[in-house]
Design goal:
- One of its GO terms (molecular function) is acyltransferase activity, transferring groups other than amino-acyl groups.
- Keywords: Acyltransferase, Transferase.
- This is GNAT family N-acetyltransferase.
- InterPro entries: Acyl_CoA_acyltransferase, GNAT_dom, YpeA/RimI_acetyltransf.
- The chain is built from six helices and seven strands.
- By secondary structure, it is an alpha+beta fold.
- α3 (about 35-45) packs across α4.
- It has a single domain (about 1-185), classed as Gcn5-related N-acetyltransferase (GNAT) (Aminopeptidase).
- About 35% of the residues lie in helices and about 30% in strands.
Length: about 190
């Protein structure tokens, strides 16, 4: 079943998010152990619910009490402040702001931005990502956004195909963490 995320999902959801973050080769992985990064993400998920990876910005696909997929997103209007809670969390843990995960702006105007979509490696190829994608238009409409936007790494052909097959179209390109991304959108109006 697909449902809104809850604080109890923190550990399993962050296991999945860590897959994506490690693939992005973010600088923070050269500065902190993976266990500390995951610990901070779990803390943020629970204690900072409006953070980029806070539980209020997530939907979960659950099978037999296991989180097998997660999607995080937010309206473009929150772009400037979406990571402030994580910066505060770093300070609370006596860590410098330079350990934040992202610097680049990722959204286009008037879109609900799908920041992260990831499924468990053990459950890939079973339509879970598609189910999560199909749940997003309702969320975007509730947030008064005319489209859903996302960035997909240009070398991730499998993910790009999934998005294109689900009604997304390329509308631009951007550089995030030294990787070239295509920006895709799907209208929801």
């Amino acid at each position: 079943m697909i449902r809104l995320a809850e604080p109890k999902d923190a550990n399993q959801a962050m296991d999945l998010v860590m897959i994506v973050l490690e693939d992005m080769e973010l600088n923070v992985f050269n500065q902190l152990p993976k266990t500390k990064i995951k610990e901070l993400l779990i803390q943020g998920f629970i204690e900072k619910p409006t953070y980029r990876y806070g539980f209020q910005n997530a939907i979960i696909k659950e099978i037999n009490n296991e989180v097998v997929g997660v999607a995080f997103g937010y309206p473009d209007s929150l772009e400037e402040t979406i990571d402030q809670d994580f910066i505060d969390l770093l300070a609370e843990n006596d860590l410098p702001e330079s350990y934040k995960l992202f610097d680049e702006e990722e959204t286009f105007e008037d879109e609900w931005y799908l920041d992260t979509l990831v499924t468990s490696p053990n459950h890939r190829g079973k339509g879970i990502a598609k189910e999560l994608l199909e749940a997003l238009p309702l969320i975007a409409k509730e947030k008064n956004c005319a489209s859903i936007g996302l960035n997909v790494d240009q070398i991730n052909h499998h993910a790009k195909k999934l998005y294109l097959n689900n009604g997304f179209e390329k509308v631009g390109e951007m550089l995030i963490a030294n990787h070239q991304y295509d920006h895709l959108q799907k209208q929801v109006s």
